[in-house]
Amino acid sequence: MRATDTITVATTRPETMLGDTAVAVNPKDERYKDLIGKTILLPLTDREIPIVGDEYVDAEFGTGAVKITPAHDPNDYQVGERHNLPRLLVMNEDATMNAEAGPDFDGLDRFVARAKVVERFEELGLLERVEDYEITLPVCERCKTIVEPILSDQWFVKMEEMRDMALDLMRTEGVPHFSPQVPHEKVYTAWLENLKDWTISRQLWWGHQIPAWYDAEGNVYVARSEEQAIENAGGRELTQDQDVLDTWFSSGLWAFSTFGWSGDTHVPTDAASASERLADKEEAAENRSLGDKSVPAPAEKNVHSPSDLDVFLPTDVLVTGRDIIFLWVSRMIMLTKKFTGKKAFEDVIVTGTVLGKDGKPMSKSRNNGVDPIDMFDKFGVDATRIYLASIATGADIKWNDIGVETYRNFANKIWNATRFCLMNSEGASISSESLLQQASFSSPPVLGGVAAASADGVVPPEGGTPNFSLADKWIISRLNKTAKAVNQAIDTYQFHEAIQLLYHFFWDDFCDWYIELVKDEITGGDAFTGGKATVRERASDVGEEGTLAYTRVSARSRILTVLEQALRLLHPFMPYLTEELWQKLPGVSNSLHNAAYRSAASTIMLTSFPAGDDALIDEKAESEMQSVIELITKVRNIRAEMNIKAGDRLSIHVAASSEMQAIFTANEAQIKKLARADKIVLGDSLDVPKASARAVLTGGAEIAVPLEGLIDFDKERDRLQNQIEKLDVELQRLNGQLSNANFVERAPADKVQELRGRKEELEQQIITLKANVEALV
RNA sequence: GCCGACUUAGCUCAGUGGUAGAGCACUCGCUUCACACGCGAUAGGUCACAAGUUCGAAUCUUGUAGUCGGCACCA
């Protein structure tokens, strides 16, 4: 190589060239490969630096030659390590140049030095060109100062072993099981695979100071305490490392340090109390009936007292946010495995991020934050809590006051429904769940409050228990179906689904229908005296008054018991409200508690979570109730569309099968009340005046409401036409599907059958409605 | 640059192969004795766009556009 040859490199920080200790090229680069091993003069200095070959250099990028500044660039540092290059610090900690930069630059600010280097290059004719180039700069979050990479001593944690432990857990056991699994499991695994050693030194004035001490010669002594360090140093005077531990290092110990770990897992604890807690945990797991997660037995039982660590580690589930997975969750997993040999936890639920109203992450600079305290004041703690829980697992959501308001209203609804039940609870009381089991008609009645009330002349009807009404069987079925679905949803961490189910059950089923259906029975209104004929007849010889009272009391106990179960189901999501209301229910006591806690003061917190009972799910009752609901809804629709005044009573004519007639007869009082009718005429066919509004029901039933003088024929025609059109749209689609030979051949038979049934139903309804339209003319 | 997510009614969001849902807002009616933070009845969607797989797609595949996130940022 001739003495005049040059290599051109590019840099965004010209002043760092003063600290260059090599030029690197790609060993495969034809242009430069012969230069490897030679040296080159570094301008502005008197140094001669080597040319090294390193795969790090991308021959395609820039000039294909890179200046190497090991003390001021992380990548260069690694190149330096590979080639044993000196690490020359040319800057002070305040980003001014130091003596190593040479007398011309010593003491200059980096930016001044930068300009001066460029100037000198220009003077020397060494500058090829200056061009604009966009890079991302590391900037101090608080003071906005541009951060310069600089060589310094830091403590690192070797991660290889712990990383492999964590990867092994994921690969062999799938632990932790992330929920939602996608994309977190993949991201977590990829992160671990690329994990580098962990810097735990932090240059902060607060925190846990690193337990390393230095003597005057710079020798290091790591110890648990300063005394021990001094002892290890043979009494020499020591100074402690000024840095503090990364906050996540301390936090990473949390999963097991909270259970009394201190290097010895055989922490002596009160044996009895630990064993009890183990029993409680097992029992709680059973009672929740949320799958068969077993609690691991303490190792070497009977050898030493089980400690909290033995009993509670690993925990079941950790709930956290996305950004915490690397910082904290992974560290807990690795450190726990390393120090205790155990898993930290089985499952990790990753919640979404609550964004500001502008759809961006909340931050002070954007000023789009939501203060939870404001929400508590405005909507209540329970409403805020259930709103947050109602967000789909893992989904980000824009904060929405309307959403919280929805649950504030729900809380109000629960309060008012309970208030209604309590206003009409005289003589009644919660019994155990066994009350609901009477729906199966197999066991003798165990009616809470009945014995006490008997003194007041409340007498059971002859033959024991009153038959449950359709509404009773229906709500009990709905309750148990909901409970089962809620358990399943919680078990799979689908909290939003559980909440949706409970919201619908409580508001629509319980409040809008059940309370309204049994209201008169409970308060002693009209439907009560008119609708319980069978009970009264059976009890004729014990006196009507007593039986009426008995029936009312048992209805009251029934609704309270359903309510009590609903409050339990809602309790995890609305703890304060449900506890408050539960305490007010007559007959609640610690006898309702989970068996392990019978002696504790009564609280809803210690009752078992309703699991739902298949035996109490009654599809027939649900389907029959659906017919009643449909009938009432159709009549209400006629009332609304025909502008019938709320106070006007009307009569309902129904043509239906004998089975359906029987259902409507049994629920006549309730239908009349809720449809605001004073008469129901049931028969095999309709015999009504032309001036009637009509509708069809599922199952071939037909109804008519005579509206002499009230009907608007044009309006009624439009109303019927509108319904026909809607049904026709669906029929057309079904016809299209069913006329497709491929569908009929390949789709599952039951699906085809289902659609055929639906088609027939639609055709029948359309025929009827069309006939109704013609009859109007 | 690499990886990923999201796009459904006016708004905020559910819905992973079989007739599109909720809350709020909108329209109409209601001092119905638990609740107007309520009750009753309506209306409102080519499920971002395109192609493919399938008897059948909001749902599965691929591509496009837009929005957002994570990682790497480089001489």
For the structure shown, list the relevant keywords.
777 residues; alpha/beta; elongated; RNA-binding
Structural summary, described in words:
There is one protein chain. Helix content is 45%, strand content 10%. The strands form 7 sheets. The protein has a 4-stranded mixed β-sheet, with helices on one face. Strands 18-17-20-19 form a 4-stranded mixed β-sheet, with helices on both faces. Strands 6-14-13 form a 3-stranded parallel β-sheet. The protein starts with 21 loop residues before the first strand and ends with a helix. The protein has 26 helices and 20 strands. It is α/β, with parallel strands linked by helices. It binds one RNA strand of 75 nucleotides through strand 4, helix 4, strand 16, helix 13 and helix 16.
Shape: elongated
Number of continuous helical runs: 26
Structural class: alpha/beta
Please report the distance between the alpha carbons of the first and last residues: 110 Å
Q: Report the biggest beta sheet as strand number plus sense, adding barrel if it closes.
A: 4 strands, mixed
In short:
By secondary structure, this protein is an alpha/beta fold. It contains 26 helices and 20 strands.
Give the topology.
Blueprint: E1 22-25, E2 39-41, E3 48-53, E4 65-68, H1 74-83, H2 110-124, E5 156-157, H3 160-173, E6 177-179, H4 181-193, E7 198-199, E8 201-202, E9 212-214, E10 220-222, H5 226-232, E11 239-240, E12 244-245, H6 247-251, H7 254-257, H8 271-288, H9 308-312, E13 315-321, H10 324-340, E14 345-351, E15 354-355, H11 372-379, H12 381-389, E16 397-398, H13 401-423, H14 450-454, H15 470-491, H16 495-523, H17 526-531, H18 533-538, H19 544-570, H20 575-584, H21 619-641, E17 650-655, H22 658-666, H23 668-675, E18 677-683, E19 692-696, E20 702-706, H24 713-738, H25 741-746, H26 749-776
Helix pairs in contact: 3-10, 11-12, 12-13, 13-16, 15-16, 15-19, 15-21, 16-19, 19-20, 24-26
The chain binds one RNA strand of 75 nucleotides through strand 4, helix 4, strand 16, helix 13 and helix 16.
